[in-house]
Amino acid sequence: MLIVLASLVGIFIGLNFKAVILVPLFLFGVAAYAALSIEHGFGATSLAIVVAAVSVQGGYMIGLTGRDLFAQILTRLNIVQSKRV
After folding, report:
1. How far is CA 46 from CA 31, 41, 42, 59, in A?
2. Mean pLDDT for the chain overall
3. For the CA atoms of the chain, what is the radius of gyration?
4. Could you count the other beta carbons within 10 Å of the beta carbon of residue 55?
5. pLDDT at 85 exceeding the cut of 60
6. pTM of this prediction?
7. Domain boundaries in the chain?
């Protein structure tokens, strides 16, 4: 579940933001997960953080490569106005 959620967040971030957002997102995610998983051991927590970080970055790359396709779909559905003159 963590991998899917992190990948979806990465895809959303890749579609809407630039690469500068990855570092604050990673630091916020580490702090939030570490605070919520106090009862787990250090090894399990650090492994989950690494898996989530890799998933977010993979999703971010998917979002970056899908920007053009997403923009074309939105234009065809008339959700976003075309940039043609």
Report:
1. 11, 9, 6, 20
2. 83
3. 16
4. 19
5. no
6. 0.73
7. 2-76
